[in-house]
DNA sequence: CACACCATGTAAGCGGTTACATGATTCC
DNA sequence: GGAATCATGTAACCGCTTACATGGTGTG
């Protein structure tokens, strides 16, 4: 899924909710895994140290001196970097939004950010329409090849999913306005 | 997506259709990309040489001596290795089948392999039912957290997709019997 | 006192991406 | 004759997985 260090933004995103340890982050990844993301400790801890190094997060001073726990919080730079990432698809130069990038961002949006939310839904909806048109074409082609029956089923499945998604986001947008 | 050298099986699968060059394989990957798979030349060519080394594929002797083209065909060992991979989820010890593994296999199944096809559809359908039940639970939990509105939408989307898939495979199985 | 869980890491290896390199053939 | 396409590779890098390593805390 990942291309440009997605884990970094997932961690920053979780830290916008509240301060956490690496262990806490792993718990949340595991719990919310099915919908979007997972990562092992061997990826999380080094990443936290890199984020610390580049001042996107900072250690929370503990009042308990005998704990090994390292609790992290966002710095103001970190907040900004996360927000920039969140809004990146809304840049005018970006004309499409794939499912992974979409879901990753959606995960961190609440009803309070309805502006960004609506724009992302619209962009994703638009991308889906293009993809649906493309798949309709592929479907008409593949039905003339009975030996590719499995592939035909895959296209039908993908089409059904994308149509269902498009309808869901469309209705969501209507709810807001 | 891949865990245990999936590319290897994709190449073998394509070569069950007909003999091909590495260049041909890339073309097909690009054309059928949306549904399942893609790979750059830098991955394909080394993989072909590895497959050649382990005698799963063989060079087709060319009657044109001045071409650089290398056309490959499956060996009998290669055919067997591919079939074993295709049927692996049908092993009694395997009780679930994720979407990636399912789609990858489905892609190479025609109406002539209805036996394997039906079994794979049933296994996938069964896995989906479990995942749907899990997501229903998560949905009731998340609705009490209005700040996680985005996550709620993701769960709704995933639920709709999985229910749609389950219905599609269910109907497919009925068609066959 | 054992077992589960809390808590933080390092090392090796592999699959996949991006960039680089080379040269033939075909079509306008 | 230039551009697109055919055709086959190598090298460097990076993210991710698996395995390994260590030790504290809480509960039955």
UniProtKB/TrEMBL annotation, chains A, B:
InterPro entries: Tscrpt_reg_PadR_N (IPR005149), WH-like_DNA-bd_sf (IPR036388), WH_DNA-bd_sf (IPR036390)
Gene3D superfamilies found in the cross-reference section: Winged helix-like DNA-binding domain superfamily/Winged helix DNA-binding domain
The Transcription regulator PadR N-terminal domain, residue ranges: 11-81
Name of protein: Transcription regulator PadR N-terminal domain-containing protein
Organism of provenance: Companilactobacillus alimentarius DSM 20249
């Amino acid at each position: 899924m990942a291309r440009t260090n997605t884990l970094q933004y997932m961690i920053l995103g979780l830290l916008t909710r509240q301060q956490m340890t690496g262990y806490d982050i792993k718990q949340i990844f595991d719990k919310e895994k099915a919908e979007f993301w997972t990562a092992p400790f061997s990826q999380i801890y080094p990443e936290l140290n890199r984020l610390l190094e580049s001042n996107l997060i900072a250690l929370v001073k503990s009042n308990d001196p005998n704990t090994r726990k390292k609790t992290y919080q966002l710095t103001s730079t970190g907040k900004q970097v996360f927000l920039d990432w969140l809004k990146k698809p809304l840049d005018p130069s970006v004309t499409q939004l794939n499912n992974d990038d979409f879901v990753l961002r959606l995960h961190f949006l609440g009803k309070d950010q309805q502006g960004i939310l609506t724009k992302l839904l619209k962009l994703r909806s638009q991308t889906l329409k293009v993809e649906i048109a493309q798949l309709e074409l592929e479907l008409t082609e593949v039905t003339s090849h009975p030996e590719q029956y499995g592939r035909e089923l895959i296209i039908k499945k993908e089409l059904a999913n994308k149509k269902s998604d498009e309808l869901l986001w469309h209705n969501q947008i209507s709810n807001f306005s």
